[in-house]
Amino acid sequence: EVSTDDPETAFCTLANREELNPEEDSIHHCLYQFTRNETLTETNKLLCDVCTQRHCGPKNNIKSEKKYVYTNAKKQMLISLAPPILTLHLKRFQHAGFNLQKVNRHIKFPEVIDLAPFCTAKCKNVAEGNTKVLYSLYGVVEHSGTMRSGHYTAYVKMRAMTNHLSDLVLRGQSQASETEPVKGQWFHISDTHVQPVSVSKVLSSQAYLLFYERLL
After folding, report:
1. Fewer CB in 10 Å around end: N or C, the chain?
2. Which residue ranges run through the membrane (predicted)?
3. Fold of the domain spanning 79-214
């Protein structure tokens, strides 16, 4: 889809990214890096249809790929529609020569996360004037072991039944005004073993998948 947004606002976000100073090995740093502004130059230049038509005339007159015009450009991936359920999948492997190696270091993640710095200024389902898009953690999947073998366990928050989540999923409505995490008891699940755990235990886990529900 070709975007014709004003260049001055095309790379604007709901909240000021310049004020962010994300800590290394944190989910905020991962999101910041994933949504950073990139410059496309040299062999990564963008094929520009407008520039090509200006230089060569209508497309039907272009007989050789050599006549296409490539130009420097900016690229940025931002969230255009805030989901009711946010699932973050961490890439826990890296190349070590010809082999894959698991990344075991701890990545910090919060109970409540604000996606506004990573959303486009014209995010479709955020009310005008809102500068926060808040999510509350309710599930974590953890993997122990190596790239060849291991075991998956989960942390899940049990909370009181509300209509909030169904409103988000079915109607895309956000009625909440809280900025605190949804109250509930955390449990660690490993096969048939289930036991209650503290929030600190959950936040110290080596997350592989993170599940958040939208608050605001």
Report:
1. N
2. none
3. Cathepsin B; Chain A (3.90.70)
